[in-house]
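Deviations from the work plan: none for this task. Representative record:
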Amino acid sequence: MTSYRLDERGLIDRHTKLPFTFDGKHMTGFSGDSLASALLANGQQLVGRSFKYHRPRGILTAGAAEPNALFTVGRGGRTEPNTRATMQELYRDLEAKSQNRWPSLEFDIGSLNSILSPFLSAGFYYKTFMWPSALWEKLYEPLIRRAAGLGTASYERDPDAYEKCWAHCDLLIIGAGPAGLAAALAAGRAKARVIVVDEHAAAGGTLLWETATIGGNLAADFVTQTLEELRSLRNVRVMTRATAFGSYDGNVFGVLERVQKHVPEPVSQKPVERIWRIATKVALLATGTEERPLVFGGNDVPGVMMATAMRAYLNRYGVAPGRRTAIFTTNDSGYVLARDLESAGVNLVAIIDSRAGSTFPYGGKARVLRGAVVTDARGGRLLSSIDVSFGRRSENLKVDSLAMTGGFSPIIHLACHRGGKPRWSDERSAFLAPETTRGIMLAGAADATDGLAGCLANGAARGAAIAQELGFRPFPFEPGIVEGDVPAAPARPLWSIPGVKGKAFVDFQNDVHRKDITLAVKEGYGHVEHAKRYTTNGMATDQGKLSNINAVGLLADARGVAPAAVGTTTFRPFYTPVSFGALTGAHTEGHFQPIRKSPLHEWAKKNGAVFVEAGLWYRSSWFPRRDEATWRQSVDREVRNVRANVGLCDVSMLGKIEICGKDAAEFLNRVYANAFLKLPVGKARYGLMLREDGMIYDDGTTSRLDDGRFFMTTTTAYAAGVMNHLEFCSQALWPELDVRLASVTDQWAQMAIAGPKSRTIVQKIVDEEISNGSFPFLGAKEVSLFGGQLRGRLFRISFSGELAYELAVPAGYGESVADALMEAGSEHGIQPYGVEALSVLRIEKGHVTHNEINGTVVPADLGMGKMVSATKQDFVGKAMVSREGLVSPDRLRLVGVKPVDPRASFRSGSHILTKGAAETLENDQGYVTSSAFSPHVGSTIGLALVRRGPERYGEEVVVWNGLSKEFTPARLCDPLFVDPENEKLHV
Amino acid sequence: MASLVPCPHCGMRPKEEFTIKGAAIARPGSHADANEWMDYVYLRNNPLGTYDEYWHHTSGCRRWLVVTRDTGTHEISASCDVTVAVKTGVAA
Amino acid sequence: MPGSKALHGRGPLRSPWLGNCRVQVPVTDAPRKRRTQSLGHYGVHHVQGRNTTTASNAVTVKYIARLAGQEMRKSLLQRRSVFPVDGEITVIQKPGGGKQVRTARYPAETHPLAREAAQNAVDPVRLQPVRRSAASTYKQSVALASCGGYCFTGDFYPGGASYALPVTRQRPHIVQRFSGEKVGGPERFGCRRVRHQRKIFDKKKAERLSYSGCFERHGSNLYVSVSLVQGEFDIPRYPFYTHATKLADMRYSALSIFLNGLRGNQSWKPAWREPQPKSHYDVIIVGGGGHGLATAYYLAKEFGVTNVAVIEKSYIGSGNVGRNTTIIRSNYLLPGNNPFYEYSMKLWESLEQELNFNAMVSQRGVLNLFHSDAQRDAYTRRGNAMLLHGVDAELLDRTAVRKMLPFLDFDNARFPIQGGLLQRRGGTVRHDAVAWGYARGADQRGVDIIQNCEVIGIRRDNGRVTGVETTKGFIRCAKLGLAAAGNSSRVASMAGLKLPIESHVLQAFVSEGLKPFIDGVITFGAGHFYVSQSDKGGLVFGGDIDGYNSYAQRGNLATVEHVAEAGKAMIPGISRVRVLRSWGGIMDMSMDGSPIIDRTSLDNLYLNAGWCYGGFKATPASGFCFAHLLARGVAHETARAFRFDRFERGHLLDEKGQGAQANLH
Amino acid sequence: MSEYRVTRRSALGSNALRSERICISALPEGHVIQVMGKEGGPDLGAFLSEKIGGGAKFAVRIAAPFQWYVVGDRALSPEETDTMLDTLHPHAAGVDQSHGRVRFQVEGAMVERLLAKGTGTDVSVEAFPVGHSTMTLIGHIAAHVTRVGEHAFEIMVLRGFAESLWDDCARMAQEFT
């Protein structure tokens, strides 16, 4: 354990100590540390075990691409597996645990896999575990599942809040490094609406560890000044800890803001994470570059680190990587690190430069080996030495830390999320952003610009140009002279290092090594997508940020083609993983969907209703009384009471649509299958609405209030759909008709008053006379209530088959009117009833609901064939309803069904089999759509759709429910169980 | 598109405010034959490229729109009220 | 490199069972034609190479043979260092002996017989012919081989004509077909006796044929792959199976992994060839996805049609088979669908052994949650329909669900869970492996898989398809099968067809890797969400389609959020799990939510499309039934309802009852 | 039962949530008239404002093309409503939605930030000036939003959803209270 904290250097606050634990070990870091830097400062270089071979792993990067240092942070409902230590800010008492090791990080049994590695080659599992087949689920797979995976998630509920937010801007800048900040200033000063997002805790990007000066200022000071100015501009918003994770259509970017992931205890008023959907005119990707690892043996041994990461730890966090360091470089950037290491007093042993002809004027003390490569790194839990090969010679150097840099690839993910294909650049041996992606531009290093000065200038120019393009007056911005920068020219690629002996990793997290890639090619999986899927390269949590480019290079080598011909796998969201919580926002648990409440909700509540979810509504199911032990007792009572006395039911949730205009009648005539043109004013009519394919869509009653005004009711479930459909019909199909539609569902509280005594009660509050003569069945009219205090609408329609009314009153008065009805009816035995009783009542009358109208029935199936107008020229569904298959006599048609033994029962969803027939699907005769216990009949009754049903009344069948092993002998019958002549309706 | 849909009445709106019905094709007249109806109800051109689709601004102005969109790139090139589309023959 | 040579057809023929045969007779056109005729339905597999020394006319036929008799088994066991015998061995009495068929299951290593056999070398392994498929009219598999020495013998009955090869040592035996393989559906095989086939011994022809071959074991079947190369060539002077590594190349097993591992994994061979297209095929399948590859595989294996090409515009498996949520189930409601999906499930259950490719078929159960009485009724109806067809189904109540999955939201849910419909046999399969397994199996049977070859036109003549224009040139075919999933409409339009299909994008997602979190597949009933956990540890999940026509293979953030909301509503503990990646597939959404496997108005153009987002689970049956249709011209019994004209005639297969709006299914 | 006095229950009561930076308060359940003009007909905005909106500021809002809401804090008697609806004839059809729509007001310095948590509509004052109104989704609930001041919006929502949307807004406001 050789890494250590320097006494000075870095942007950390050495006065604020933050204690934390790692695998139970107590450690201390400083404010400003990342978890990774704090661990390194504590000499903790072994941080994890790899996925397959359980090899010891150390911190490789200082950013979002970290494949190794993934920890489980937090506890209980705040347990967060796979947290990247490099992105996690240190906070007081942070608890981090390493993953995928047992029993401990130091001694991991799983590391035996390393010995077996010859037999665990890429895709080995496709070739084995096939015998015997029964053992797969029982033995092999559970073992594999247990061995795989990274961290352990908690099943506990998350105590913290999340939310989502929209933002709109002219220019979204992603990345607040040199190019991003310069662009922000240029565009911000021009008064464009600018949003800058950066995934790190602090804006600045590479400037935070840059040793060059800008306009004579330290880079870090330049950042501070720039941010100050940006914050002073009202039209600019800078968001840190905000990762742009996806680019979507319409130039909308998904951004994850980590609001409270850096605090010990989140406050409840704020979300811990927030998703932003940012709609922007132009997005500027100033996302910088990703440094490429080099694929030599043991490149995963703790102590080996990306060169830029080493520089970041050194300069930003004041952490030295070890006591004896070497640098393996393919480009000039290695020398910059060398300079910084030496200035920090770190013992730099050697610079291994793969370029024989490198002429970098290095003035430091370390040995420089040109034209040399590291073939193997040695060591177990910590790097001990490296084998360096140069020319024909090789040498073993004792080092405890090694920086590697294989060059830099622009980070272009977001430019490719919308399907753009990256372009290969031979010059940079990297993929560059697609030529054109609408609304997206790149700046700085992401745009293949070299050097700090170049990036600043490029960013400023881009910002100004975009602002001008968008119609703003550009405002010049000169970043100042840069001194001390070493622009690293593009590296010559070094895909395959000759002479490698050990495992050379390409995808660190998924343990894909060089041989896996060549094996994939050998086995025919040489296409870049096949190789990815076969070897799992690039499928780790870093999504191939570090591995893809090397894999492409190695594939190209193995296939003997150019990397351009290999291409790359598709860049897809998310750039970095996003939590379910953030994506969910506030719509969780009880708030998953909004709640819709009836105006009679409180009335039902005070009458003791048990509620049930019905779509977004809560409906009253039944109204239990104290002496009732089961719901059935309550429902039976409610049903009996409706048939004997009177009941009151809340039907406010029915969809209600007002249809106005002089062509309203013609319109209805076209949307319903039955005739509506001649419906008289003051009358209601049951209507069947078909889909264009001839199936029934919805049903309901529609009343004519006056010549050009109708009031339609729909079922609760289809209310919204019917409204959309009617709007489609009026706007798209028949715009020539003068029709206007208004949804008035919420305007009216509607109650059904059903039962032989309903008239008496309703008459008590209705001012007008409503005798059978003056207001017969299917009457519909506006009424005055309570001596003119209120106006309502009264309909004499019945779902229960009893004498019944539906009364609609303005919603705000609903509860008061219902109270009045209860009071008026108390002497007549009025009781509230819920949807359960409503359902029993309607089944007894053979009335259908969406249990029967399930999208596959035509009117004739329900015995309503005659309703379909033969004379109307056109209506929705007319053309298709007469297709051969829909008029076949063999169709399932509505019947009633009753058990032979009244004590027996059956359930909806049971199937109907001919008595004595074998229990096969071929013999299936239909199914029970609705069933209930009917107090009136004294047994369970049901409605069923049965093949040739109405021809089979009286036939004994088996109601077959294999799921509950109930096979009930029953008889098919007329679905009208109560009052078959409908006499009660007309009293 | 589809993250944001331009409504000719309301401006750019998120996709979730809309309901999508499918191909914007004209309904056959009442005397059309079975083939025409089959075509209208069931058969679709389903091209890769420009496509006219019925979108309903359900949580907005509740107008039906004809949205002209590229099914390969998702880019919207036009969006107009269905009555305008019917008049100008876009959806015919 | 050795690899690239093989890939480009230089060097020795790479067909695995051709070993390192060197063909010495150059090919000319005239004799090829004649031979094609003489070999009937098998056609001639023209292997074209750049090097004339490797050009040949090779007939590739695959046989299934069966061990007969005790000594044969012993002999096989004795060679277990080369035969990965570790499972089930079927003992079949010799004909004329007893009539019993029995199966013994034991791991070879532990059974006393194995140890005994290892010490006693017994004389020749005798391979017995079996009839492959009782339903098949193609007498493809009535072949005979003996390999005690160095030769096979065999009978070919292609399309009625028969040829025999020289029998060297052993006389042929005809044995009965073992009934162990359950294919399911209405095509349940009984124990049938294969009729003794009439043999025509055409010595003159036979002597001109040479052959090579290898063994493959699939379950209780011993497969003999025979390649016949016309003309003279070197046959290895030793039994090919003494080359352990060579065998291991061809057969996948723990042993082959072990042996290859010892050799530094240098000897693995490509899983499939990369042939150039021939000028003509009996059948061309457009679409190298799961369905297309499975179709080709079953065409070759079950129906004896091997002169087949699968044409794929990108890489195989680049479509929906490589971008789904890997769920398999057969919990369908309608009688037109249910038997088909159950047939598919049966095929899944024996797939890996059949393909010798571990696709990780994992039957950890599929549970559909319900949250309302109406949903419970609908699931009751569906579950009962399943049971009536012999499909397993259980209706769990809330308590049972809670016991099984305590981590679901039972306490604060907006739509409380009331129960669920469970199919224990449902589960997941490693999706890519399905494409690869079928590809490898098809390739081994002579199917040409032609990647990076896009169909750009369909040439027609007089109401018939004559071939396809591709980016690699025009290819003639006798029959054309379209299995292009989301691109079906585009391909069909090249033949002037308009389909009842819209292409829609469906997104799917995977989370970061986690230690075991969810065992089976769970679907949410109060929103669009379904989830399972892959063997690698990622939660694989999805929701509803985005809703608009798209060919873009990518979706929108709104849908992502919608899915996540439902996910957290179902499993609150998922909140801090991070979603790693999202992707999109193009769904061929049909207008009633069910597929089409049927002929089209063009005589020899066949369509397999309209899978909506349920295509993955259907892969094996879809391939089988499409192959059935292509080979025989009539629909397979389980796919009879998938007719093209059902829309016109009103015989819709609408599981959801949503009607003619593609995005609602 | 003419002696029975009917009473009106308001959907949100007199709820209010007040803090320095944000304030949410229920508005009186007065009247809301949905006015549906003829497609392609004249803009009735000025006419409505004068004739039935009584010239009050923000009384007339655009609901959809050729549709308007006329809103006011005072509840109307059935007769007054009739008169109003009659006035519309023959220019437009009117539907009384006084009970079907519930209004509340959100105001304060953070009001734009609050609304941005719910709606994808750009609510910055440049894009959404005072007096502008639109129908949009706030979270999962559709609502009619009108800017009634630089830092004040009125939200009108279906009665059944009123409580739910109120709760959502209150949660969104938590950060600012």
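Chain C touches chain B through 27 residues (CB under 8 Å).
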